[in-house]
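Slide 14.
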Amino acid sequence: MEEVVRGGFLARTHIGLDYFDASINRVAAWTIGTRNALKCLLVAMLEPVQLFSQCRGGGRLHRPARPDGEAKTLPFAAVWDEYCRRQSTPVGRAWLDEVRAYERTVLSKRGR
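Slide 15: predicted structure.
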């Protein structure tokens, strides 16, 4: 995701995910996979990409000139939680309660 965002390829990139995990049900695997992909994309989008480019453009490729360490302390979790709220999606591990409810109300009836 970092390369897609840093390279400016987001508008022309299609992201495909494989959700299969035999140790958990498909709904949980789909939810975990999708949320993790979105989190990675969000982290990449929070990076100071222009600052990275300026460091490279100025010939200062050595580590101290690059703000990698600063990017790691960005408020990713707070931004992610707010994104979830705005999307009317469970925040934190609350999504797991919804998956369990789905298992009880829908998946449990399929075996009958």
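Speaker note: DSSP finds six helices and no strands in the chain.
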